[in-house]
Amino acid sequence: MEKLVSEAGAELELFPIESDRPLPTVVICPGGGYRWLSGREKEPVAAAFNRQGFHAAILNYHVNIENLGFQPMYDLAWAVSCIRNAVGFSVDKHKIFICGFSAGGHVAAELGVYWDSRELFPAGNWQEHKPDGLILCYPVITAGEYAHRESIRMLSDDECVWNWFSLEKHVSSKVPPVFIWHTVTDTDVPVQNSVLFAEALLQCHVPLELHLFPYGVHGLSLATKEVEEPSKGRFADNHVAIWLDLCADWIRNC
Q1: Among 87, 141, 172, 196, which lies 20 to 30 A Cα-Cα from 3?
Q2: Is the pTM above the cut of 0.85?
Q3: Spatial separation of the C-alpha atoms in residues 208 and 14, rounded to whole Å
C-alpha cells in the first residue's frame, strides 16, 4: 500500500489492483463528524471496491480542528488530482469517483458542487480535480433545519457562513452524476439531507440514482458482518448491503 502526503498534511492511501487496461478509481472519504475518521469506512470499503474490479484510495482529510472551513474539500481536490495523474497503475482518468460517508459525504458533495468555483479555486486547472461521479452514503448535506449540527459547527462557528455549507442550495447542472443511499430511520443524520440534495439535483437535471432503505441506524458502512458494531446497533443487513452491488453497476454504466 502506497501513501501520498499533501503539503497541507492530508494523506492518500492507494489500493490499486493489477490490470492491463485502465480502470475506474474510487476515492473514499470516511465519516466521523469532522472530528475523527471511521475505520469501518476505510479499508473494508476499499477492499470491497477492489473486489468489484476498481482501484480504491482512502483520503485521510483534516479533522478535529476548529473552523476547518473548506480544508477537507481542498484535501479531496488534491487527492482527485493525484489519482488523475497517477503513475504505476492504470487509471481511467475519466472515471474517478468519490465515495463519502456521513461527514465524508459532505466533503464529497462539496467538491461536486464547488469544483469549478473561481472564488474557492481561484487558480489552476479545474478539470484536474473534477470528480466524474459522487457516491454519497448517508451524507451530511444541509446546514438548515435537518443539519447534523455538530459537523457544521466543526466547519465554522460563524453562522453567517453556514449557507456555504448547505450544499442543496448550491447545486448546478455542472455537478457530476450522483449515487445516494440513506436509511429512512437514521436519527443522527436525517434522511432529509439526501432528499434535499436529490431534489436540487433533479431540478438541475443532474443524473441521479437514489436508494432509501426503510430501516437501519446511521453509520452502517457496508452493512456486512465484517463491519458490525453491536454496541451502536450496527448489524449486518443483507437488504441494505446491496447498495455496493448497485453502486458498482452504476459506476460501470457512468
Answers
A1: 141
A2: yes
A3: 27
**How many C-alpha atoms does 80 have within 13 Å on its Cβ side?**
28
Three-state DSSP state, 113: helix
The type of residue at 141 is: I
User: In the structure grid, which three cell numbers stand for residue 106, read together?
Assistant: 459532505
Alpha-carbon distances, residue 247 vs 41, 160, 177 (angstroms): 16, 36, 12
CATH class, domain 2-253, is alpha beta
The residue behind cell 475518521 is 37
- Spatial separation of the C-alpha atoms in residues 199 and 69, rounded to whole Å: 25
Please, how many CA atoms are within 13 Å of residue 59, restricted to the half-sphere of its CB? 35
Domain ranges in the chain? Answer: 2-253
User: What's the pLDDT at 220?
Assistant: 98
CA distance 244 to 44: 12
3-state class of 127 per DSSP? helix
- Euclidean distance between CA atoms 251 and 118, whole angstroms: 28
